[in-house]
Amino acid sequence: MTDVPGTTREVPASVPRAPRPRQAPDDKAAPHEGETTVTFTRPPAQRVTEQAAPEQRVAKHRGTGQQGARHRGAGHRGAGQEPAKWQAIEREPGNGEATLALSALFVVSLLVFVVGRTMDSGTLRLIGLGGALFFGVGTAPLQLSSRARLDLRLGVGVLVGLSVPLIVASVMVLTPWWHPVLVAAVIAVAAAGLHAWACVRVLVRRAQHGVFHWEGQIARPPVVAIMLLSWVNALWCAAAISAGHLVPGLADFLPRISVPWCVGLASMLAGVALLRGRNEWYAISCVVSLLAALTATPALIYGMPRSQSAAKHIDLVQTILQAHYLDRGAGIYQAYSGFFSAVAWLCDLAGIHDPTGIATWWPFVIGLLGLVELRLFLGRLTSSRYRIWAVIALVVLANAIGADYFSPQSVGFVLAVGVFALALPDLKRSRDPEERKRPNGLNEDARIGLLVMAGCALAVTHELSPYIVGGVLVVLVIFRTIGPWYVPATSLLPALGWALANAHDLSGFVSLADLGSLSNFTPPKTVVTPGLQRLPIVGQSAHALALGLLILAILAGIGLLRSVKDRSSWAFMLCAGVGLVMIVANPYGNEGIFRAALFGIPWLAAVALRAVPERPRYWVTGLYVVVAAVLCGTYLVAMFGLDNANVIRPGDLQALRIYQHQASASSYLLTMSYGDLPVSIDFPALSDHFVVWNRLVEPAQVRTTTPAAGDANVLARNFYLDAQATGGASHELYAIYSPASVAYSVDYGLETLGQAQAWRDQLLASPDWHLVYASDGTYLFRDVITAHQVQAKPATHKKAKRKVRRPQHIVSQPPARSLPAPARSLPAPAGARHQPGGGVRLPVRGAHRRPPRCGRAVLPPGRCTLPSTRWPPTRSGLPLL
Fold first, then answer.
1. Residues 744, 675: contact at Cβ < 8 Å?
2. Radius of gyration of the chain (CA)
3. How many CA atoms lie within 13 A of 756 on its CB side?
4. What are the strands, taking DSSP E only, across 682-750?
5. Which one-letter DSSP state was computed for residue 463?
6. Could you tell me which residues come within 8 angstroms of residue 209 by beta carbon, excluding any fewer than 6 positions away?
7. Does residue 217 have a pLDDT over 70?
8. Which residues fall within 8 angstroms of residue 46, CB to CB, at 6 or more apart?
9. What's the mean pLDDT when you consider all of the chain?
10. H or E element: which one contains 250?
11. Are residues 403 and 600 in contact, defined by beta-carbon separation less than 8 angstroms?
12. Residues 6+ apart with CB under 8 A from 329
């Protein structure tokens, strides 16, 4: 590189691997938008030499013959005539600052952790651990790299920061070998050693080369813009805090929030639309503020997780904290427990016993990590920061699937985006097919090692995500977009190996009857009670979700038309549909369509990136504002429309814990409605001890009329007979009434609010039911009926000639009407295990599926079947792992 005569020269921070053209002496090397610039001071001797003999430098650069050709081949990088020490410096323009900054953040995180220990603050300890994990352990592998850009360092930091605890904690929990402090100390010492070595290299190199006095800046943030954004953030945050604690209602989050919150959100959308011509600090601030407003506001006003399914994940984390061990053969949650083990490890180090607060703020935390990976992913495709952050903002608004709750799926999605980013070459910088397969700043061995680590982390965390990731990588290899050919094996082989090791847990989820069935592509359906109808918000939320994804797909279609001759565009569009191929084989609880859409969003965004012009005209900016506003509306309706049924109520969670404290593992728990509520994965110990409402009361009985005065007593009797038939603890029978579960039933037209409240009042007045706990509309009852109070006429089966007890009919209004007995309330022989869809699971020869009103003995006395690992189907957005 030819140097500009003078005392200083400026070098852009992100130096591409591709050769750069030589620069004329009178040209100024202006950094690109948002890049770091570092001013290096040249020694006087070098300046005198360069100014005294400029003709000699030109002659040396041009050269003659083979020597001149060699100089011209290397002269693009300035390596032909520069001394060796200047070559070393030019390889790391701006990276020295990044190295020192990340190491400083690592030290600050450790100090925050120490302060938290001193002040006995679990929050500070957790923040310090998180910072040390990502800024320390995560970024350590690239601290010694002299070519890695900041986005690559942060992306790898998130990937490693998630993979290390997932893998290490799984080993500690499943081995078992629970030594959290010792393992954390070893990892921290290793990371600290790498950071110290990297910092010493940077400082010593510059001191030895006479450039120790350098001046750096990281795209100086615009002061005025940052002040305006700070005011906007203060506006929506103050509005959310001033709203206080709100009880979740039907689509009442938006009407009950104050106007300043809406003004702040609108201001952030306008700020995103005006990203053109701004540096990257402004873009980052706008998008992060938008994400915070959408995900942190529910945490502030509700104070509880937004998904009922998060409760059983919280419960499993607490189980690990108490037992320090999980039996891999106990069920699918225990087999794929990487996420739960990692959270338990961090909670143990931070001294946190209840991870409910972590689950409440988890959408915001995992959203930030997802932004880092999306920045790296889209940064592989374009160098325009405006296009990158404009599309990222659209992705945040279009992704209203709800997979960001406290679950393994949220971590699996972020890891998947990180794997995609590392697998893709740096398409925007190199045109050489061989060079395009080698990402800038990361050698091939390190890249494959990181992909293998991420593949192992996915394998022990989620049962579906690694196969979608592997399928995407196969498509990219077929289109020769990535290389080498064995890259898909980094995700598929660990997943297949772990699946074979846990085949006994997965056997209940794989069926040849589901292969190729069109019903695999249909979302979960809830049958509406005759005479009732769903509330309009149910359909509106589903339509809003579909509209948001459709808008993103239309933008991707426009991008495909603009790059129809580009092979990679077609590859990306096929990658967006890989998830659909996966659910052809397994519907994943009829919710595979949501998972397929989730993993297709990054690839739709990659193609939509080409629909956004690098320097848009004003009418394009106006169109972008309209699209962003529509997506914001769809997000708010889809995500918060059904908060009355989705948000966990504190009373429900407390009732579950009281039940776990008082009852034994062989007890029974009855849900007095059709919706979701907080449950435990392993308590009660058997899945059929978790009794759904229509197992004891036929839906037609409770849907058409209100319960009669004696129905509560009949319900207690039927509950006792059901427990006695299944061989459980018939003296430990509990029932829970949840306002969130009732809200679900009302929303979906399963029962009226009056019917649900009538059942609650009947149990409160009945002598056969004892009230254990009541708070904020939640009631926990215990069935105190005794054996001598249970009177039922025996019935004889024609084949087995065996007398069995029959549950009485629950009499509803009018009293003279006799209703048929519920089909699913029949007693089963001791040892039989109910399947979620009815029937029993009997692995003995000659066993049959017991039809209704069949009392034939199916198992020899003293034998029992293995409990089913599948829980009753849930109605939340993403109920499984």
1. yes
2. 31
3. 26
4. 690-691, 733-737
5. S
6. 85, 86, 88, 89
7. no
8. none
9. 77
10. none
11. no
12. 335, 502, 504, 505
Q: Which amino acid is at 519?
A: S
Q: What are the distances in angstroms from CA 875 to CA 402, 461, 555, 880? A: 13, 22, 31, 10
Q: What is the C-alpha separation between 218 and 101, in angstroms, rounded?
A: 11
Place of tokens 């996915």: 458
- pLDDT for position 870: 29
Q: What percent of the chain has pLDDT over 90?
A: 44
- Amino acid symbol at 728: G
DSSP per residue over 496-509, as a string? HHHHHHTHHHHGGG
Six-digit token pair at 729? 């603890």
Asked if pLDDT for residue 422 goes beyond 90, the answer is: yes
Strand partners, 769: 783
Least Cα distance to 229 among 187, 254, 279, 265 occurs for 265
pLDDT at residue 557 in the model: 95
**Pairwise CA distance, residues 857 & 830, whole Å:** 9
Q: Is the pLDDT of residue 190 over 60?
A: yes
Which residue has tokens 């030819």?
2
At 482 the three-state DSSP class reads coil
Q: Which of 406, 408, 512 is nearest to 459 (CA)?
A: 408
Rounded to an integer, what distance in angstroms lies between the CA atom of residue 426 and that of residue 437? 8
Compare 240 and 850 and report the one with higher pLDDT: 240
CB 825 within 8 A of CB 808: no
Structure tokens at 329: 């053969």
Distances (CA, A) of 357 to 116, 519, 563: 17, 38, 46
Residues 752, 673 contacting (CB under 8 angstroms) = no
* b/e per residue 731-766 (b: at least 16 CB within 10 A): bbbbbbbbbbbbbbbbbbbbbbeebbebbbebbeeb
Q: What pLDDT is stored for residue 356 in this prediction?
A: 95
Range among 505-509, 647-651, 751-755 rated most confident: 647-651
Using alpha carbons, select from 649, 558, 650 the residue that is nearest to residue 607.
558
Query: Counting Cβ atoms within 10 Å, is residue 352 exposed (0-12), middle (13-18) or buried (19+)?
Result: buried
Closest CA to 653 of 240, 307, 241: 307
Contact 461, 408 (CB under 8 A): yes
Half-sphere exposure of 343 (CA within 13 A, CB side): 26
Q: Residue 182 is encoded by which pair of tokens?
A: 């010792």
> How many whole angstroms separate alpha carbon 516 and alpha carbon 512?
9
Look at residue 627 and give its three-state secondary structure. helix
Nearest to 682 by CA among 166, 337, 356, 238: 337
pLDDT band at 222 (very low <50, low <70, confident <90, very high): low
Burial category of 118 from C-beta neighbours within 10 Å (exposed 0-12, middle 13-18, buried 19 and up) = exposed
Q: Which of 405-414, 507-516, 702-711, 783-792 shows the highest mean pLDDT?
A: 405-414
Residue 96 reports pLDDT greater than 70: yes
3-state percent breakdown (helix, strand, coil) of the chain, nearest 5: 55, 5, 35
Q: Is the pLDDT of residue 1 over 70?
A: no
CA distance readout (Å), 307 to 317, 703, 756 = 16, 26, 22
Short-list 80, 170, 257, 703, CA closest to 459: 170
| pLDDT band of 25, cuts 50, 70, 90 | very low
Q: How far is CA 281 from the centre of its chain?
A: 25
| 196-217 burial code (b ≥16 CB/10 A, e <16) | eebbebbeebbeebbbeeeebe
Helix (H) or strand (E) holding 88: helix 84-90
pLDDT tens per residue, range 804-841: 344 454 433 333 233 333 333 333 333 333 333 333 33
Based on the number of CB atoms within 10 Å of its own CB, is 55 exposed (0-12), middle (13-18) or buried (19 or more)?
A: exposed
pLDDT, residue 411, reads: 96
Angle between helices 739-747 and 753-765 (to 10 degrees): 150
Helix (H, G, I), strand (E, B) or coil at 671: strand
